Each structure stands twice: as C-alpha cells, then as structure tokens.
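User: Fold both of these, please.

Assistant: Here is the first one.
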Amino acid sequence: MSRARRFKELLNAPEILVVPSAYDALSARVIDQAGFEAIHMTGSGSSASILGFPDLGFTQIPEMAEHAKNIVLCTNLPVICDADAGYGNAMNTWRTMREFERAGIVGFHLEDQVNPKRCGHLEGKRLISVEEMTGKIEACVDAREDPDFTLIARTDAREALGMDEAIRRAKIYLSAGADCIFLEAPLSVDELKRVRDEIDAPLLANMVEGGKTPWLTSSELEAIGYNVVIYPLSGWMAAASVLRQVMRELKETGTTQNYWKRMGLQMTFEELFEVFDYSRFAELEKRFVRGDE
C-alpha cells in the first residue's frame, strides 16, 4: 500500500489521527520512533529551523520541497505538510503540488491568505478572494499525479470575516476539489462543534500551545467529530526551550554537567545515535564499504 493511500485510510478511520509536527529530519525520526502513524511537516517550525525566521512567508518552494524530501527519506510513515499560500499565484501553486508530490509528501494544506502569509494564530492576516483560492485548488487538482494525495483546504477567514464566511468558503473549497477542511483558529468549543455540524467532509484541527483555539485533548476533538489533529509548535517549542536552558547553563557555569544532573540525563550517548539507526548503518558500512586489496 502506498503512503498516500495509507494516510487517506487513516484520515477516514473512525478514530482521530494524531499527527505530531516535525521541523526537521531529527524530529521526524523521534516522532516515528514514538509510535505515531503519520507526520506533519510544520511550516512555522521549518521556517525557524531552515532560516531562523518567524512564520511570515519567508520560505519558498525549492527549500521547502528539499526540506520535505529529507523528512520523507528518514521515515516510512506518510508525511503531510504545510504548503502555506502556495508561494504565489495559482501557477506557483501548481508547481508547489508537483514539487511536494515528487518529494514524497502525501498531502498538504493550502490556505487562503494573501502571499506572503503569516502564522494563523497571529494578528493581521489578509485574505485573497474566494475566486483566487478556488483557482489555486483547481490548479492543485490538475497538477496532482496520485489521486490518493490529500488536498487540505485551509481558510483563515474566521478572524477577519467571521464564522459564517469561513464556513461558506470551506464549502466552496470542497466543491473546487479539496478533500479535507482546515478551518483555522476557531475561538471556542462551540465554534469547533459548529464546523463539524455544518461541513460534510473530513476535518483537521490545529492545536497550537498558547494559540487562539481552545487547547483540547485528542479524545475531546474526536468526540466533537474531528478526523485529524496536528501540533505544529509542540516539537520545536520544546526543543528551543530545552536548548535555551542548556546554553544558559553552559554560559553561566562553563559546563553542562550540573544541568543534566539536575534534570536527569534523558538520553545517553548511545541512545542518541540509535535515534538515527546507527547500528544498522554501521552494519551496512561493513557490508558495502570496501577498500583497495
């Protein structure tokens, strides 16, 4: 079974699909080894990891496709990703589909913000017209080679135009060819429920720690009727937090010893390298790397 078909089956299963977000290949390996069934490549975390810049539309198609390819190559799990606003007009979006699909991505979410976009939980988002967004969706459908690729339409209309318009747009995007709806930043549980009540399609929930949407558990989201949930900040926020603490300790004391003694060493040197299957690669090296006789 292809990864794209596997993801589509998981999306349509009775249980909610919990998809943590990777910001690079290392975090993807950790997610894989934790036992999850799919991986989401975060746009905000990728911008932070690749460029050290905030999620304000700085990333472009080639670097994001390359980043996606590296994540896909380090796991056997299906990988979906954030395609932002398609990195331009409908023709740029057409290319985005081609590049991400060739990189091995099995689905992505595309949003109706003006390009360059901004994080969905920041203020000041601006929207394109419904007509322009439907053109982008139709371009994706045309460029898509695998019919199992999951096209997720995201609308950011809730903040600027209200729930009525967000739901109206979502329904139009489904008619244009989207497979799943991502209505960004509902402000209450009632709004989350309304999305489920009024949209007859698979739904994606976005859990952002400290964001605008209520911070619900996956079980609570499943009870409402959501099909998949992503966690775009969790991994890289945790990594940045721990790294900041370790670097502060090193700067102030000249060693990391006390930090790890105080916190308890969470991973040994050997365990770290096994995140990357070092023993398997060492065996491959013995089998294949040969010198001169």
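And the second sequence with its predicted structure:
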Amino acid sequence: MLSPADPVIIVLLGYLLFVLKVGPKFMQNRTPFDLRTIIKGYNIFQIIYNVWMLVYAIHFLFFLRLYDLGCMTSLPLDHEHKHRESYFGTLYLVNKFADLTETIFFVLRKKNRQISVLHVFHHVSMPLVVYLFIRLQGFAAVILYCVLNVAVHVLMYTYYYLSSVSKAVQSSLWWKKYITMAQMVQFGIILSIIAYTLSQPNCNVPRPVVYVSGCLTLSFLVLFSNFYIKSYLLSDRKRGQKS
C-alpha cells in the first residue's frame, strides 16, 4: 500500500499545503500574476494530451478488443498487449498530476473562490485512487471510466482555451452549464457500468476497486449536482426574479 514517504503522498500533501495555506498567504499582499499566455499553452497541452489518450484507448478497447467491456480484468503479465494497458495507465496518472497545475494558477491569480471543496477533493482523490489501482493491478477495471473522463476533459479544456481567446465564449454561461451536465452524465454512466459489473457473479474484477470507484463516483455526482443546482438553476431563478 502507501507509506507517508511515498512520492505520491508527498506531492499531494505539498499540493494541499500550497493551495490552502502557503499560496494564499504568499499572494495576500501581492498583485495577481498575469498568466494568460501560460494558461493558453497549458490548455492546448491538455487538449492534445487528452485527445491522444482518447484515440489510444479507443483503439485498444474497440479495435483490438482486448477486454470484455462488461467485466474488465487485467491482462496477464505475459500478454502481447500488456504494455498497452500499462502505457495508458501511466498516461492517465501523469495527467491527473498535471491537472493539479490548474489550482496553482487559481492561487497565483488570486481566484480563491474557485478553490472549492469540490475542486480540491476531485484533484486530490483522482491521482491517489488511480495510483492505488495501478499498484494493486486493478487499473484495467476502471479503464472504461477513464475513457469517459478523458472525453469530457477534451470538451472542458477546449472550452477553457476558447474562453481564453474569446470574450464572447468567456461570458457565455451555456458552455459551462453543458460541460457540467456532461460530467454528471459521465458519472451516471460509470455508476451504471459498476452496477452491471457487480451483477455478474462470475466476473473476477477486484471488488475493492469496484467499490472504491463506485463510492468516489457517487460522491462526485452528489458534489457536481450540488454545484449545478447552485450555479445554474438557483442563479437562473434569481435572474428571473430580478427581471
């Protein structure tokens, strides 16, 4: 399992320390940094990286057909395509750590309101859980979930990039609304897949991996639904009352 000296634990603790305490204190009496050029580059990187993961995973899931999609167990160590499973797992894990950069941008730009419980919980739990699954040889069970997540991230970072170069996109609420809806639909599909997997008594997918995935996905669905209601439904109602 994990020890306090594990590099993953050290990185995530350092992240929490910076975004919750050290970073805000450092920026307290400073002017926000202008990171527009850096953020544009970061968004382009994320779009390209996530598109590559999506294409790569679709190829070995639906063209090579290496798995039973209803019961995705790890390939044997001597399987000729085992390296593809490991490669995608590494790509996805690295991307989850790259996602942490987004919060650092918030701190340096003094966008502290965007550092919500949902945001921090999501960014810490994902790399931690993915790393555990890889260590426990259970990552194959969640590859399909990761592919759905990658597809949503392509949409999300495309929006982020377009909003960084277009004020019209930046001021448009419907993009944000439908991206949040896509994230909630993603969680609903994942929970359906998990339920189907658990309904098969002869499926050898590691049950702890499935249970942890289910609990994490359900918590995301609740938190994102709460965000959606507060940010869009209630705000639309308030705007309607004012008009």
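The chain has one domain: 7-15+26-242.
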